[in-house]
Specification:
Layout: H1 3-16, H2 23-33, H3 38-61, H4 63-66, H5 76-89, H6 103-112, H7 117-139
Helix pairs in contact: 1-2, 1-3, 2-3, 2-7, 3-6, 3-7, 5-6
Length: 143
């Protein structure tokens, strides 16, 4: 795997966790560079971003034990807000996991609410991949 693909995977993974990172710009830049097939770039970004969300889901599973700890990356208020949202709209809210600001806390809330891993993974993968497909199409000026 080339360094650019590893970098895209890494930034996409980080962008899905609760650390701020912008993977869309990285994807657009690599598409514009034209060094790798677009479908491969979208697949790598989607995989990295989905795996990063799985980390959030895992943290959510143990959030009760860690909530309030100084190192825990989500405030108790923000976690409660995401949990209320998730409780109100259920697993389908995971289709918004691509969205800035609310997406990452939603994936954490899914872990808190004990969303089954298979449905979590499916819905998040669909949402994340759709976002990257749109970014790719916009970069290629198809839409």
């Amino acid at each position: 795997m080339s360094g650019s693909l590893l970098g895209l995977f890494g930034i996409s993974f980080l962008a899905a966790t609760l650390f701020p990172a912008g993977s869309e710009l990285g994807l657009s830049g690599l598409i514009a560079a034209g060094t790798d097939p677009v479908i491969l770039l979208v697949a790598v970004a989607s995989l990295g971003n989905t795996l990063g969300s799985m980390v959030n889901w895992g943290l959510g599973r143990g959030a009760a034990a860690f909530s309030g700890a100084a190192w825990f990356p989500v405030s108790e208020d923000r976690l409660e807000q995401a949990t209320r949202w998730y409780h109100r709209y259920g697993r389908w809210s995971l289709l918004l996991s691509w969205a800035p600001v609310i997406g990452d806390p939603l994936t954490l809330a899914a872990g808190v609410m004990r969303e089954p891993f298979w449905s979590f993974t499916l819905l998040v993968a669909v949402a994340k991949t759709a976002r990257y497909v749109i970014v790719a199409l916009l970069t290629l000026q198809v839409v």
